[in-house]
Amino acid sequence: MTIWVTNYIIKWSLRLCCRRFPWKRSSISVLASIKDSSLSRNGFTNGFWGGRLYQSRLSGTLSTTRFYSYGEKDNDDLKDSNSLTTDNSLSTDELNKTSSEQRQRTSPFLELLRGCNSPSDVLDLTSKYAPTNRQVSQCLSHMWFSTKKLSDEQQRYELQLMFEHPEFENLLQRVTRSIQYMHNKDVAYSLLSVINLGVAQRSRVIQTLLRTCQERLNDFDEKALSILASALERMKASQNVDALKEGMRLVVEGRLPEIQNVLALQTMMRLLGRDAPRELKQKLERKALSMTDQFSLPNAQHMVFTMATVGFHSKPLLKFCSDKIKDNLHHIPFNILYKILQSYKELLYRDTNLLTSISDHVASTFDIWTNKQLVFFLCAFKDRLFCPTSLMERYAEKVIANPDALTLKDLLSVLTVYSSLNYDLQHQRQAFLDSLSHALISYLPTMSGLELLKAAHYLCGMNHFPSALLEQLLSSTASFTKSKERMFQRVDICLRLDRPPLPQPLIVPPSVLGNPTPNPSVNPLLSKSLQSVVADQANATLQEMLVVENFYVIDGVVTKPLPNQPCVTETSSMSPAESSQRIAVIYTPNSSFCFGTSHPRGPLALQIRHLKILGYAPVLVTEQLLQSSSEEEMTDKMRGLIFPEHASEAQPQ
């Protein structure tokens, strides 16, 4: 025990002496020692770490990269850089001794490091106490973590102070001297930290870290690979970065069966990215599915985000994650839940059960959400073409109770959602629309022309016509561009066909309507089926691709006698129009309906409403009907839609 105490005292006495004689630590600068080396030929004469913060991000003048990851031609340079020593650098034996004697849990340095609240505090600490090899990496990580919770402006200020600090360059020099003695995980953490801190990517310190990572890549464990993948994800494409990414792809593919950590697997998936070969993506899918029993709720959420990031669509994996999320909705905060909906949008994935569960959950916990959050939820559901019935009903009650609480942006978003999804408010419809109109009127003096047009467009679509808003819109039509013609055309046809009771007649100026006549294209499958159906009916006629009111396109109009009506003769008092029925056959893609239902969305609902006003009986032929039936089956189904009386007569047979 006495010998140990003596050695301990001697060791700390030597360290104290070194610190008390600063002239020992500044004899020869590393920059000076490499001044005449190949760095000048490779564009690194501007500084060890690439200049200050803003300079580091504008350092495109550097002509080449220090170390190339292909081949061995720069091995000597790298060895030279790793072997650079100064009077203030530790010898190999001293470094090894320091590392072996390090006691992380009781280290006074780490206790002091935890008390640092900014990068500058960390640099002040390293100027007083020399960190060990591992502590160098921990210093860099702490510098980055200390800025994460700051606002953008505070973060910029702290990073600027960091780059101006005289100790910052010394710390980065120590990174390159200590890198060969660092653990693999510490090397990866060091790279991640300096990237996050904004050090120039083409600086010597980052290029040295990249080259070291490549040399040790085969020895990296899951944790180190995961950290390295996060670092490379934040780096711009370059010869070094691309080569290291390619090496990681090979390592990941070879080690895939050995990966046991879900988070590590997700990090590897992000690294492999959208350009990964299909065979490798399938291997990743099988690996992820084999690990689903380990998935926690955060794992399931993160898997959805990862798949959206890399554009990887796996229905079995998404289904599992959706079920996991659905069973734990009460534990998911707004930002995560909203991000999940956005990720499903990017992946073009819709799960009716999950969407319904989220809608019901938000509706049942309605009071805990802010108005802004509720509007975001509604817009996210609208983007998925899903009608959240329970949520829309609750929100309508909120609008009716206090419409003045909505901002103009909220009002326009709400109008967009309710108009697009064609939600049936039933007995609350008029009160809801009146409340929205009342709130909009208060914003009329400050509304732009485009905001007026959007509001009128959505309200007219819902068969509601506030006169004050329409009058202000139609009195300021000169400022609109050609791209808004379609919206004006819809307002115009609503005014003409719905004929709302306004204080004075309103007409949309022809100058903003452009040329509303559409240019329809024939659906060959539907056309052939219609012709086959009408050919069997003696008293029926067919018109294809009929344009109505210069706005709506009808794929086929079948005119047939009304059932149980006598034939029209020269002596009869009934006109042919009164004795016949016009069937408007409309092809409707799946996107024309709310997801998972046969409920028409806004544009289709408006067309149906107007065709009925014009005397047509709309018949909808869905995309599913055309694609999932044989020609004979489709003709039979079409006959049943257009001539239901014949279908009912044939049924008993």
Notable characteristics:
653 residues; four-stranded mixed sheet; Endonuclease, Chain A; 4 strands; 32 helices; mainly alpha; disordered C terminus
Characterise this structure.
- Keywords: Mitochondrion.
- It comes from Gambusia affinis (Western mosquitofish).
- The chain is mainly α.
- Among the domains are: 108-258, no CATH class; 524-646, 3-Layer(aba) Sandwich (Endonuclease, Chain A).
- Helices cover 57% and strands 5% of the residues.
- The protein contains 32 helices and 4 strands.
- Strands 1-2-3-4 form a 4-stranded mixed sheet, with helices on both faces.
- Strand 1 and strand 2 form a beta hairpin.
- The longest helix has 19 residues, at 2-20.
- Mean pLDDT is 80; it is low at 14-47, 51-105, 571-575 and 648-653.
Strand content: 5-15%
User: What's the main sheet like?
Assistant: 4 strands, mixed
Overall helicity: 55-70%
Termini separation: 106 Å
- How many DSSP helices? 32
Q: If you average the pLDDT, what whole number results?
A: 80
Q: Count all strands and give the number.
A: 4
Q: List low-confidence stretches.
A: 14-47, 51-105, 571-575, 648-653
Strands side by side in the biggest sheet: 1-2-3-4
The 3D shape can be described as: elongated
Q: Rg from C-alpha positions?
A: 35 Å
Secondary structure class reads: mainly alpha
SSE diagram, text form:
Layout: H1 2-20, H2 30-33, H3 53-56, H4 75-83, H5 92-101, H6 108-114, H7 119-128, H8 133-148, H9 152-164, H10 166-178, H11 184-196, H12 204-216, H13 222-233, H14 239-255, H15 262-272, H16 278-290, H17 297-310, H18 315-326, H19 334-346, H20 352-364, H21 371-383, H22 389-401, H23 408-421, H24 429-443, H25 449-461, H26 467-474, H27 485-498, H28 524-535, E1 541-548, E2 552-561, E3 580-588, H29 602-613, E4 616-622, H30 623-628, H31 631-642, H32 644-650
Parallel strand pairs: 3-4
Antiparallel strand pairs: 1-2, 2-3
Helix pairs in contact: 7-8, 8-11, 11-12, 11-13, 12-14, 13-15, 15-17, 17-18, 17-19, 18-20, 19-21, 20-22, 21-23, 22-24, 23-25, 25-26, 25-27, 28-31, 31-32
